[in-house]
Amino acid sequence: KSEMVTMQTNRATVVAKNAEIRRMKAWLMDEVPKLQKLAMKKVKGISSEELAVRNDMVLALPERIQAIRDGTTTAANQIGGWAASASHKKMNFDSDGNFGSGCLLSYAQDQGLDIISEGLDTLKDLAHDMNKELDRQVPLVDEIDTKVDGATADLKNTNVRLKETVTK
Protein backbone atom coordinates (compact mmCIF):
# COMPACT_ATOMS: atom_id res chain seq x y z
CA LYS A 1 0.00 0.00 0.00
CA SER A 2 2.88 2.34 0.79
CA GLU A 3 4.29 1.85 -2.70
CA MET A 4 0.86 2.37 -4.26
CA VAL A 5 0.57 5.72 -2.46
CA THR A 6 3.67 7.02 -4.25
CA MET A 7 1.90 6.47 -7.57
CA GLN A 8 -1.23 8.39 -6.55
CA THR A 9 -1.78 11.93 -7.83
CA ASN A 10 -4.95 12.72 -5.88
CA ARG A 11 -3.91 14.32 -2.58
CA ALA A 12 -7.08 13.26 -0.75
CA THR A 13 -6.44 9.65 -1.73
CA VAL A 14 -2.82 9.94 -0.61
CA VAL A 15 -3.86 11.33 2.77
CA ALA A 16 -6.52 8.66 3.25
CA LYS A 17 -4.18 5.83 2.29
CA ASN A 18 -1.40 7.20 4.51
CA ALA A 19 -3.83 7.33 7.43
CA GLU A 20 -4.82 3.74 6.71
CA ILE A 21 -1.15 2.73 6.60
CA ARG A 22 -0.53 4.46 9.95
CA ARG A 23 -3.49 2.63 11.52
CA MET A 24 -2.20 -0.69 10.19
CA LYS A 25 1.30 0.08 11.47
CA ALA A 26 -0.11 0.87 14.92
CA TRP A 27 -2.04 -2.39 14.92
CA LEU A 28 1.08 -4.31 13.88
CA MET A 29 3.12 -2.63 16.61
CA ASP A 30 0.48 -3.69 19.15
CA GLU A 31 0.81 -7.29 17.94
CA VAL A 32 4.63 -7.41 18.20
CA PRO A 33 4.72 -8.26 21.95
CA LYS A 34 2.44 -11.24 21.33
CA LEU A 35 4.69 -12.36 18.51
CA GLN A 36 7.76 -11.95 20.73
CA LYS A 37 6.20 -14.27 23.32
CA LEU A 38 5.39 -16.80 20.62
CA ALA A 39 8.90 -16.59 19.17
CA MET A 40 10.40 -17.51 22.53
CA LYS A 41 8.32 -20.67 22.85
CA LYS A 42 10.06 -23.86 21.96
CA VAL A 43 8.42 -25.88 19.24
CA LYS A 44 9.00 -29.56 18.69
CA GLY A 45 11.47 -30.16 15.90
CA ILE A 46 13.02 -26.65 15.86
CA SER A 47 16.69 -26.23 16.62
CA SER A 48 18.08 -23.65 19.02
CA GLU A 49 19.71 -21.85 16.08
CA GLU A 50 16.37 -21.57 14.30
CA LEU A 51 14.82 -20.36 17.54
CA ALA A 52 17.50 -17.66 17.84
CA VAL A 53 17.02 -16.60 14.21
CA ARG A 54 13.28 -16.44 14.74
CA ASN A 55 13.77 -14.32 17.85
CA ASP A 56 16.15 -11.99 15.98
CA MET A 57 13.61 -11.59 13.20
CA VAL A 58 10.90 -10.66 15.70
CA LEU A 59 13.22 -8.18 17.43
CA ALA A 60 13.94 -6.51 14.06
CA LEU A 61 10.25 -6.38 13.18
CA PRO A 62 9.35 -3.10 14.98
CA GLU A 63 12.11 -1.27 13.12
CA ARG A 64 10.94 -2.69 9.81
CA ILE A 65 7.33 -1.72 10.59
CA GLN A 66 8.38 1.83 11.46
CA ALA A 67 10.41 2.03 8.23
CA ILE A 68 7.26 1.68 6.12
CA ARG A 69 6.47 5.00 4.46
CA ASP A 70 3.24 6.47 5.78
CA GLY A 71 3.50 10.18 5.00
CA THR A 72 5.22 11.11 8.27
CA THR A 73 8.74 12.41 8.62
CA THR A 74 9.93 9.66 10.98
CA ALA A 75 9.18 6.85 8.54
CA ALA A 76 10.95 8.60 5.68
CA ASN A 77 13.99 9.48 7.82
CA GLN A 78 14.35 5.88 8.96
CA ILE A 79 14.37 4.71 5.37
CA GLY A 80 17.28 6.95 4.60
CA GLY A 81 16.21 10.54 4.52
CA TRP A 82 13.90 12.51 2.32
CA ALA A 83 13.56 11.73 -1.31
CA ALA A 84 11.08 13.59 -3.47
CA SER A 85 8.44 11.21 -4.70
CA ALA A 86 6.48 11.62 -7.90
CA SER A 87 3.26 12.30 -6.02
CA HIS A 88 4.69 15.05 -3.80
CA LYS A 89 6.57 17.32 -6.21
CA LYS A 90 5.22 20.48 -4.57
CA MET A 91 6.55 19.62 -1.10
CA ASN A 92 9.05 22.14 0.19
CA PHE A 93 12.34 21.37 1.91
CA ASP A 94 14.42 23.97 3.65
CA SER A 95 18.21 24.30 3.35
CA ASP A 96 18.71 21.74 6.14
CA GLY A 97 16.67 19.16 4.26
CA ASN A 98 13.76 19.38 6.69
CA PHE A 99 10.24 19.06 5.49
CA GLY A 100 8.38 22.33 4.99
CA SER A 101 4.76 23.30 5.34
CA GLY A 102 3.55 20.29 3.35
CA CYS A 103 3.89 18.07 6.42
CA LEU A 104 1.76 20.41 8.50
CA LEU A 105 -0.77 20.52 5.68
CA SER A 106 -0.84 16.74 5.53
CA TYR A 107 -1.25 16.54 9.31
CA ALA A 108 -4.03 19.14 9.20
CA GLN A 109 -5.74 17.19 6.43
CA ASP A 110 -5.49 14.01 8.49
CA GLN A 111 -7.03 15.80 11.45
CA GLY A 112 -9.76 17.24 9.24
CA LEU A 113 -10.52 13.83 7.78
CA ASP A 114 -10.68 12.35 11.27
CA ILE A 115 -13.18 15.04 12.32
CA ILE A 116 -15.24 14.42 9.17
CA SER A 117 -15.13 10.69 9.87
CA GLU A 118 -16.40 11.23 13.42
CA GLY A 119 -19.16 13.48 12.08
CA LEU A 120 -20.17 10.86 9.54
CA ASP A 121 -20.24 8.21 12.26
CA THR A 122 -22.54 10.47 14.30
CA LEU A 123 -24.79 11.02 11.29
CA LYS A 124 -24.88 7.28 10.65
CA ASP A 125 -25.92 6.66 14.26
CA LEU A 126 -28.61 9.33 14.01
CA ALA A 127 -29.92 7.86 10.75
CA HIS A 128 -29.98 4.41 12.34
CA ASP A 129 -31.94 5.77 15.34
CA MET A 130 -34.35 7.59 13.01
CA ASN A 131 -34.89 4.38 11.05
CA LYS A 132 -35.69 2.51 14.27
CA GLU A 133 -38.16 5.22 15.29
CA LEU A 134 -39.82 5.16 11.88
CA ASP A 135 -40.10 1.38 12.03
CA ARG A 136 -41.76 1.77 15.43
CA GLN A 137 -44.20 4.41 14.19
CA VAL A 138 -45.24 2.79 10.89
CA PRO A 139 -47.91 0.61 12.57
CA LEU A 140 -49.25 3.67 14.39
CA VAL A 141 -49.49 5.67 11.16
CA ASP A 142 -51.19 2.72 9.43
CA GLU A 143 -53.75 2.56 12.25
CA ILE A 144 -54.41 6.31 12.01
CA ASP A 145 -54.75 6.00 8.22
CA THR A 146 -57.34 3.24 8.64
CA LYS A 147 -59.30 5.33 11.16
CA VAL A 148 -59.19 8.40 8.89
CA ASP A 149 -60.47 6.31 5.97
CA GLY A 150 -63.34 5.09 8.17
CA ALA A 151 -64.11 8.63 9.34
CA THR A 152 -64.05 9.87 5.73
CA ALA A 153 -66.49 7.14 4.68
CA ASP A 154 -68.78 7.99 7.64
CA LEU A 155 -68.62 11.69 6.75
CA LYS A 156 -69.54 10.99 3.13
CA ASN A 157 -72.46 8.84 4.33
CA THR A 158 -73.60 11.56 6.69
CA ASN A 159 -73.34 14.20 3.94
CA VAL A 160 -75.46 12.07 1.59
CA ARG A 161 -78.12 11.56 4.29
CA LEU A 162 -78.03 15.26 5.18
CA LYS A 163 -78.48 16.23 1.55
CA GLU A 164 -81.44 13.86 1.27
CA THR A 165 -82.93 15.33 4.45
CA VAL A 166 -82.49 18.90 3.18
CA THR A 167 -84.11 18.10 -0.18
CA LYS A 168 -87.11 16.41 1.52
Helix-strand pattern: HHHHH
| Shape by Cα distribution | elongated
Share of helix, binned:
over 70%
Which structural class best describes the helix and strand composition? Answer: mainly alpha
Low-confidence stretches: 74-101
User: How many strands, which pairing sense, and closed or not: the largest β-sheet?
Assistant: none
Strand content: under 5%
Kindly state the mean pLDDT as a whole number? 78
Terminus-to-terminus distance: 89 Å
Strand tally: 0
- Please work out how many helical segments DSSP would assign: 5
Characteristics of this structure?
5 helices, 168 residues, elongated, single chain, 77% helix, 0% strand
Q: Any overview of this molecule?
A:
- This is t-SNARE coiled-coil homology domain-containing protein.
- It comes from Escallonia herrerae.
- One of its GO terms (molecular function) is SNAP receptor activity.
- InterPro entries: Syntaxin/epimorphin_CS, T_SNARE_dom.
- The chain is mainly α and 168 residues long.
- The chain is 77% helix and 0% strand.
- The protein has five helices and no strands.
- It has helices at 2-7, 11-40, 48-66, 73-79, 101-167.
- α2 (11-40) crosses α5.
- It starts with a helix and ends with a helix.
Question: Brief overview, please?
Answer:
It contains 5 helices and no strands.
